[in-house]
Amino acid sequence: MLSIRNLHARVSDKPILKGINLEIGTGEIHAIMGPNGSGKSTLSSVLAGRDDYEVTDGEVIYMGQNLLDLEPEERAWAGVFLSFQYPVEIPGVKNIYLLKAAVNAIREHSGLPELRAGEFLKLVREKLKVMQIDESFLHRNVNEGFSGGEKKRNEILQMQLLEPTLALLDETDSGLDVDALRVVGEGINQMRSPERSVLLITHYQRLLDIVKPDFVHVLAHGEIKLSGDHTLAEKLEREGYEGIEAA
Amino acid sequence: MSQQEIDQLVDQDYKYGFVTDIESDTLPPGLNEDVIREISTRKGEPEWLLEWRLEAYTKWLEMTPPEWAHLDYPPIDFQAISYFSAPKQQGDGPKSLDEVDPALIETYNKLGIPLEEQKMLAGVAVDAVFDSVSVVTTFKEKLHEAGVVFCPLSEAVHSHPELVKKFLGSVVPQNDNYYGALNSAVFSDGSFVYIPKGVRCPMELSTYFRINQQNTGQFERTLIVAEEGSYVSYLEGCTAPQRDENQLHAAVVELVAETDAEIKYSTVQNWFAGDDEGKGGIYNFVTKRGECRGDRAKISWTQLETGSAITWKYPSCVLKGADSVGEFYSVAVAGKKQQADTGTKMVHIGPRTRSTIISKGISTARGQNAYRGLVKVLPGAVDARNFTQCDSLLIGDQCGAHTFPYVEAQEPSAQLEHEATTSKVSDDQLFYLRTRGMSEEDALNMVVNGFCKEVFQKLPMEFAVEAEALLGITLEGAVG
User: How close B1 gets to chain A, by Cα (Å)?
Assistant: First the structure.
């Protein structure tokens, strides 16, 4: 589904990604772990199309097309979703308004009719239940005054509504307490499907205890230093990144 | 966003730029006493009104244009402007829509104001001003039953002379300011609204203004009087055809609210803003003021200002009655090379008077947006309160936002609060929304509409929808 080949990217002349190679098959869950500053968030930003980063070499093929040629919204229409590490506040815009606009924007580009208010409300209520979010949440301004946990739940709620083909989850576990972590983890598990691939970016193993990845990769200094199955995550948790960074 | 992208976004042709081909009865350019006499004669006005105009003209001659605003434009040649223009009509004017010039109806249709439908649609009566003379008035029957008077001011001069005489110039005196004085001398037409004691006006009252004749100054004059315990909501919406010459507009709106009366005045203004260099846009110098004369009276101004090359406008409230309330909710957009200097004045005279000011300024391209507000509390306005919030939003890096708040508090028990913010539409916000499938343009609209929400909420429902659409059109092309 996703093929990253020799990807180099920099931000204002500072190289961050230095030749990433990664193959993600349909239905697979891949976890990328690594210390701070290793380029994890840069990777997800480049894949989602943030233009602060300049790709200097390599290519990314997503379902047969060159992903890097697409605008961020075109990537969304094609089924790519990014869960933000730091979701942005949009003052004055109600959460439900954003959710509905997002769902309908993506439906429109998939040739589906717009969901009417009633249909949308029914759908969103279903998902709220899964994410254990109170309905009042819909009428608050997007991410404004949300706690860290609420922001992350809101991201996964959006993923549930948008049903992406490729989900990029950037540090979705950071800032979560144990209960919220479980809810978010279950929310991700519920989205597991043979047609959907997930790239989990995380610091810690604790999310991976709930969402079992098929593959784990270690990113350090802008390169993937090590790959393995989920036992690699456990090893890292025990031994830390030091040995790998030195390698 | 790069500057180039922003330029593309802002670079959009004026949607409503077209000219209706109607024969006009237009006076040659120039202003003197004879011109004023001619205007008065053509309108068949009584002697007292002519005298009133001439008095204003004499005062105007002694005044000079205000120069304190944060605006930059060449001096206006008042002798190059024509001061009267009327669409030709047969007989005494149309009795129904059938008698109205079809070209005129077509104009309104292009503007999206289907009068036929509006007749049927509940709630909105329309008194349309085309150039200087009102030509269509609907819903008269229903309003008549309620005892409400809603007609062109020129008609009210004949049908309700005692009311016009009593209230005209009682809120904005002839010599109030330079442009107000000019308006008093040459005012063309506008609406007259009178709500009798205890009456709640059964529908929203609405007027659409249009400027059509080249070089024709427009000098609308509107007067709204709400007697004790009455209520009225008045909507004003404007668009104008594209023109090469700058067109001067100097309107005066006077509101009078007696004891326990409430007036809600909403405006959506979209006059031609000029091209990217500001050429051809409307100069909009407006005096709007309301007086809460009785206790517990309330006046609210809500406005969306997207058009005009120059906007000079400060809808104000004079709070005389005890416990009276003044409100000002405003969204002002300055793009292209537009300049807006707008805000409000709240004058607290009565005890426990309260006022709220919410001002949202949006600047894009090379637009310059200034908020100018005065909160004045006179001795005796015991426990007066004001809350002011002015927020500025910048899109791009060549535009400007300026805030000039003035406070004159002469009453120690008064409580005044002022909050101000300036923010930029962030790339983070746009990127976030785009990853959710929204185009850059839709993303920008969403952020901007969120910024304006507190003001749009104050607009009547159908007007709020129009306002959002208009804001969308205004910002279209601002992202590429």
Answer: 9
Put simply, whether B4 touches A (Cβ < 8 Å) is no
* Domain region containing A187: 2-246
* Distance (Å) of CA B387 to CA B355, B375, B376: 7, 10, 12
Measured CB to CB, residues of chain A less than 8 Å from chain B are 48-52, 71-73, 75-77, 81-82, 84, 87-93, 97-98, 101-102, 105-106, 109, 141-142, 158, 162
Closest residue in A to B431 (Cα) is A50
Helices (H), B353-439: 427-434
Interchain pair B446, A50: CB under 8 A: no
B428 in A contact zone (CB under 8 Å): yes
Q: Does B422 touch chain A (CB under 8 A)?
A: no
Closest CA to B474 of B312, B269, B330, B285: B269
Whether residue B339 is contained in a domain is answered as: yes
Q: Is the pLDDT of residue B133 over 70?
A: no
**Domain limits for position B325:** 24-425
Average pLDDT, chain A: 92
Residue B459 lies in a domain: no
Question: In a 3-state reduction of DSSP, which class is residue B408?
Answer: strand
- Which ranges constitute the DSSP H helices of B43-160? 47-61, 102-110, 115-120, 140-146, 153-159
In whole angstroms, what is the distance from residue B255 CA to residue B196 CA? Answer: 14
Query: Are B176 and B54 within 8 A, CB to CB?
Result: no
First to last CA, chain A: 30
Over pLDDT 70: what percentage of chain B? 78
B442 at the A interface (CB within 8 A)?
A: yes
B377 vs A: CB within 8 A = no
Band (B465; pLDDT cuts 50, 70, 90): confident
Question: Is A72 in contact with B428 (Cβ distance < 8 A)?
Answer: no
**Which residues from chain A sit within 8 angstroms of residue B426, using beta carbons?**
88
How many folded domains does chain A comprise? 1
B132/B374 Cα distance (integer angstroms): 32
Indicate yes or no: CB of A90 within 8 angstroms of CB of B437: no
Residue B419 falls inside a structural domain: yes
Distance from C-alpha of B286 to C-alpha of A86, rounded to nearest angstrom: 46
How close B31 gets to chain A, by Cα (Å)?
48
Chain A contact set for B450 (CB, 8 A): 90-93, 141-142
CATH at residue A234: 3.40.50.300
- Contacts of residue B82, defined as CB under 8 A and 6 or more positions apart, other chains included, come to B26, B27, B28, B29, B30, B213, B215, B216, B217
The b/e string for B227-250 (b: 16+ C-beta within 10 A; e otherwise) is: bbbbbbbbbbbbbbbbbeebbbbb
Rounded to two decimals, the pTM is 0.81
> For residue B359, is it within any domain?
yes
Q: In total, how many domains does chain B have?
A: 1
Classified as helix, coil or strand, A38 is coil
pLDDT in tens, B368-377: 999 999 999 9
